[in-house]
Amino acid sequence: MTDGGSSAERLLAQQARRESNARTYPRSLPLAIERAEGAIIESVDGDEYIDCLAGAGTLALGHNHPAVVERMEDLLDRGRAVHTLDLTTPVKERFVDRLLESLPDEFAENATVQFCSPAGTDAVEAALKLAKTATGNRSMLAFQGGYHGMTNGALGLMGDTAAKEPITGLMPDVHHLPYPYEFRCPFGLGDEDCWRTSAEYVERTLSNPESGIVDPAGMILEPVQGEGGAVPAPAEWLREMRRITRERDVPLIVDEIQTGLGRTGELYGIEHADIVPDVMTLSKAIGGGLPLSVVVYDESLDVWEPGAHAGTFRGNQLGMAAGTATIEYVLEHDLEDHAAAMGDRLRDHLKETAATFDVVGDVRGRGLMLGLELVDPDDEPDSLGRFPADGDLASAVQSAAFDRGLIVETGGRDGSVVRFLPPLTISASRIDRIGDIVHESIRATVADDHDRAEAPV
Q1: Topology of 66-332 in CATH?
Q2: 389, 359 contact by CB (below 8 A)
Q3: For residue 164, what pLDDT is reported?
Q4: Can you give the pLDDT at residue 457?
Q5: CA triplet 338, 424, 322: central angle to 5 degrees?
Q6: 343-363 residues labelled b (16+ CB within 10 A) or e (exposed)
Q7: N or C: where does the chain have the smaller number of CB atoms within 10 Å of the terminal CB?
């Protein structure tokens, strides 16, 4: 300790003075990081945390995985170029080889790869531009609860109205359709009836000449809504969206930025439904922890002229080296299977917690992309018997978990979903510890709330 408090306190105070008010994570996770390895982060004060955020799902192999570090060191030791715009290199060609190898064969065999600026939202912007150029149409179909990034076009696709309200001039002609969020079905229906009704609604809307929707340039969806609260789309619904869009010659854009490369228990989220999209956006895990994004799409859509879409940092060779190492490791070690097994293990822990505390409304997700939705059982339920979302409780649980050495994120409706995105390499013993900490954190938070309610005025 120093006169100014702990090192973390001083660094966080300095950050608050100098960084934009838009900063987010330090507000709920007051952490200054010293080092990290695998699923463990160590603070500057020597405290250790299990990282269930993992760069919002970016770190598929965890922090500083030897395979990734070695590949980057090799690139630098050999004096290879680090930045190449879109000029090719052996490093780049190897990355493309491995990327295509990881994709479903039916998609990869006719695929074209577009390198973008380095963030996932840049891939979404490129996909929108591609679809509009290829079709000559301007309107886009998106889904309630969706999240595709924070740039103008991507923000226009977002379902969260709070993030869009301060912004003027968002991309026009975006139509938000009902997503099959079964716990809070937009039609007030449960289970299978929800996705069936959603699919029927979409089809009827697109078949209705008075729907107000001009011919769409594309439909974009997430196989599992991430920021929307770890909401998986039923495989049957995904297959219906593919059928509906194919019959109407509407390009289907699948946002695999968070789900891609093993996160959901398959290499790609579309594989749960065995569908082939027209366009796929990828970032996060494919860069091995470094900034990298691509759009992969059917070659029939490749109508761009040279230079029609560019980006200065589309030639990030370190990102391609790290991404190649990550893809190879995932493929060689069948990490999608490990993610499925560890996801089932964590889900079992969360279900035990749900059975113990009535503040847990739902446990859901796929693989190691899980969410636990917290509710207020003292409030009035809706027609399905679902209690209102409780974002304050979720924040309190996040804080209690942090105090016990676990980093989790919140998201979903009203921020009420505690989200889990650990590295795909995480061990069973760490999964068990995560489950224990979540249980303890909810118990402590509920007890604190009860004590406050019972305290004399």
Answers
A1: Aspartate Aminotransferase; domain 2 (3.40.640)
A2: no
A3: 67
A4: 43
A5: 125
A6: bebbbebbeebbeeeebbbbb
A7: C
C-alpha span between 141 and 75 (Å, rounded): 42
What does DSSP assign to residue 384? T
Q: 104-113 burial by CB neighbour count: b if 16+ within 10 A, else e?
A: beebeeebee
Return the SS3 of 290: coil
| pLDDT given at position 449 | 67
CATH fold, domain 7-63+335-454, is Aspartate Aminotransferase, domain 1 (3.90.1150)
Q: Are 336 and 330 in contact (CB under 8 A)?
A: yes
Q: Of 194, 78, 172, which is closest to residue 128 (Cα–Cα)?
A: 172
Q: Map out the domains of the chain as residue ranges.
A: 7-63+335-454, 66-332
Q: CA-to-CA distance for 374 and 359, rounded, in angstroms? A: 5
Residue-by-residue DSSP string for 246-267: HHTTPPEEEE-TTTTTTTTSSS
Q: Find residue 232's DSSP bridge partners.
A: 224
| Whole-angstrom distance, CA of residue 359 vs CA of residue 393 | 9
Which residues of the chain fall below pLDDT 70? Answer: 1-5, 164, 168, 448-457
